[in-house]
Design a protein that fits this description.
mainly beta, five-stranded antiparallel beta sheet
Amino acid sequence: MHDELKPIAEGGLLDRRFFLKKGLTFTSIAWLAPSAMAEAVRSDAMTAPGRALSNYGNPSNHENKVIRWTMGNAAAPGNGVSWTPLHALEGMITPNGLHFERHHNGVPDIDPDNHRLLIHGLVNRALVFKIEDLLRYPMTSRYCFIECGGNSNAGWHTEPMQTEAGYFHGMASCSEWTGVPVKILFDEAGIKGRAKWVIAEGADASMMSISLPLEKLLDDCLLAFYQNGERIRPENGYPVRLLVPGWEGVLNVKWLRRLRLTNRPVMARNETAKYTELLPNGKAEQFSFVMGVKSLITRPSYGQQLTKPGLYEIIGLAWSGHGKIVKVEVSADGGKSWAEAQLQEPVLSRCFTRFRIPWQWEGKKAVLKSRAIDDQGNQQPERHELIQAKGKHGYFHYHAIVSWAIADDGSVSHVYA
């Protein structure tokens, strides 16, 4: 066996720097005689002019299967979700048109010229802003993920769900968000000493409202106006949304119209009847804001096919609401042995991190897993560990290790292992 093909863990996992070594080829290629090379790369597109210029670019028609999977409430069409196809994407940034969505009563059509933001409550002076006024304030950008608290909730089911990785775990997306730090506006309003909480309210038909600790808003939250360089789209909160890095998605209130400073939470529906966890002791956990450390292998994953034994790259995503990912380990033998994956730069706090590791598949059964560790010492739990800690009746904050079984024929299925 070639030295570089010597596994560093059971199941054929190779050194994460394997692909960086010179003189190695990833896969077999067809060698052609020089006279045949030019003909091999000739394209039909060279024989006629292409399309005219357009005002806004669109994906290739050949990529029309890379779409979100949507699921609405038949009794209330504006209530539903759409999943980001994580299994079909690369890098750490989610395209704006594929960012996951969660709506409670449809997408409002808001004219920015008529929209206002009110800051009031326990402040020295209440302030009302027009959007054009807010756009004059100094802005900053943050790369960070947003994840719905209910993402991956099928993991609580007794049987493993068989669907593409993104349509199971894709209520999580990552963007570059640009906007005004909330602290600047709160300083301008003047915070009274008794203020401990902030009630954020959206301008949609559900009048979405939620409570957040004031301390978090003063730390790193933004009024976001831009996503990946362009104005936020209506589905993601146009003309302005709240950005709460690392905390559950429901707190990132879209179509933001009001921030009320108070000394207690509002006890709204989405912090009492929803987004709470029934624990094994019968009590309910409330205000579980931070999204846990998590990782997911996106290739190979359910619905994909290994065509033949040989060298593959295992890739995936990791993130943590507590901070920065420092390590991702991958197993090809169901968790008996682990090898450290390569983390792709940049590695940022509360942001998607892409990981990669080479794998020599021998054409035999295998179980692939990944586990992430963040800079606060949090490690992604096995599924039985999460259930032991949180009980069997969970719905939110599922972040256990995901296992993919590879069959002899190269097909991939979701298993609990």
